[in-house]
């Protein structure tokens, strides 16, 4: 170091290893250019979101030149929008964000940086003179005067640990924006700093093609979302799951996938899934021909029996037949309506009670016992049932987790009965309500859901280049 430069100054070469930790970019190669007034960061798929009072921007970046297989999604509040003239004389209107620059050895400070596509540039970032502190000195003939860094931070072992919790843009697919569950999800997301938008599933329409699949809503293409929380009603399951499949095609993280929702909604399919995974449930039978009524009842056992419509929800379309003759009458009535149904054994020892286990990311985060109202055998809260927190057994916890996993659901309400020979799974709900179980358990389950979403949306790690790619 020349004698006339104080040792406490920050020396930078014309090219440096830097980091933008607030954006989840711990390592970048930047060109330091005192001839440029404004700093710039490589960005593509730039989209604004949020409100006019608090606008935000979401964008993606390939932090490694020549490696488009690693894409980091970033978001930040917008502080300005400015016209910037590049070195080749072209003027561009760019979004400006503020973030922290880390130059190593404990030195960091806030800078303003513009967003532009630098995909054809060697450096992912340009550091202009406005971003330099007074104690920075640039040596234009030298490179890498700051501590050396490695792109290894983007490997599978390290990448998720370096990613901050950023502002997310989240869609809730719901036709009931004023329902308790939808409002809780929106409120909790906004409390955590995210932007949450409620989308009416039935107003979505899709452009289905191989090159550029899209989802449109009210005449406009929907933007890119970091995550989708489906609240698909039973009456629109086929169309709702088609919309979710389109989001899956776009690569959006969906809390529950289309296949799991479809399977859990069809009670016959659901019980077949449970049976395939050897999960305990009430003995169940299904038949189509009216000639098989007596045999159908015989497969299940003696009365009383439960007869369920395959499309039943919230206890509707569920009938208890106390005698064999009553069961025959109910079955004949359902067949007369050309309705699909199944017949189940009635678990007497449950005594009008069931347990709802709330499962998030393979863990039971809350449980409540629901007790039926009066003489009603159904314990659904929508039918006047009462709920209270309950401590479940290890066997019940295992059954609930195994059931949610069988359908590939990251969020599920698993209903079970306590029988003399262990827990019996009644239903796996892919859009469980939050109100009853949050009040009964006194737990913030919406926050637990967002913790899982924030964990899931972190980028995929960089895969090592194959020997063939290296040779080429």
From TrEMBL:
<dbReference type="GO" id="GO:0005737">
    <property type="term" value="C:cytoplasm"/>
</dbReference>
<dbReference type="InterPro" id="IPR041107">
    <property type="entry name" value="Rimk_N"/>
</dbReference>
<dbReference type="Pfam" id="PF18030">
    <property type="entry name" value="Rimk_N"/>
</dbReference>
<keyword id="KW-0479">Metal-binding</keyword>
<dbReference type="InterPro" id="IPR004666">
    <property type="entry name" value="Rp_bS6_RimK/Lys_biosynth_LsyX"/>
</dbReference>
<dbReference type="Pfam" id="PF08443">
    <property type="entry name" value="RimK"/>
</dbReference>
<keyword id="KW-0460">Magnesium</keyword>
<dbReference type="GO" id="GO:0005524">
    <property type="term" value="F:ATP binding"/>
</dbReference>
<keyword id="KW-0648">Protein biosynthesis</keyword>
<dbReference type="GO" id="GO:0009432">
    <property type="term" value="P:SOS response"/>
</dbReference>
<protein>
    <recommendedName>
        <fullName>Probable alpha-L-glutamate ligase</fullName>
    </recommendedName>
</protein>
<comment type="similarity">
    <text>In the C-terminal section; belongs to the RimK family.</text>
</comment>
<keyword id="KW-0067">ATP-binding</keyword>
<dbReference type="InterPro" id="IPR008503">
    <property type="entry name" value="Asp_endopeptidase"/>
</dbReference>
<dbReference type="InterPro" id="IPR013651">
    <property type="entry name" value="ATP-grasp_RimK-type"/>
</dbReference>
<keyword id="KW-0547">Nucleotide-binding</keyword>
<dbReference type="InterPro" id="IPR011761">
    <property type="entry name" value="ATP-grasp"/>
</dbReference>
<keyword id="KW-0436">Ligase</keyword>
<feature type="domain" description="ATP-grasp">
    <location>
        <begin position="271"/>
        <end position="454"/>
    </location>
</feature>
<dbReference type="GO" id="GO:0046872">
    <property type="term" value="F:metal ion binding"/>
</dbReference>
<dbReference type="InterPro" id="IPR013815">
    <property type="entry name" value="ATP_grasp_subdomain_1"/>
</dbReference>
<dbReference type="InterPro" id="IPR021109">
    <property type="entry name" value="Peptidase_aspartic_dom_sf"/>
</dbReference>
<dbReference type="GO" id="GO:0018169">
    <property type="term" value="F:ribosomal S6-glutamic acid ligase activity"/>
</dbReference>
<dbReference type="GO" id="GO:0006412">
    <property type="term" value="P:translation"/>
</dbReference>
<keyword id="KW-0464">Manganese</keyword>
<dbReference type="Pfam" id="PF05618">
    <property type="entry name" value="Zn_protease"/>
</dbReference>
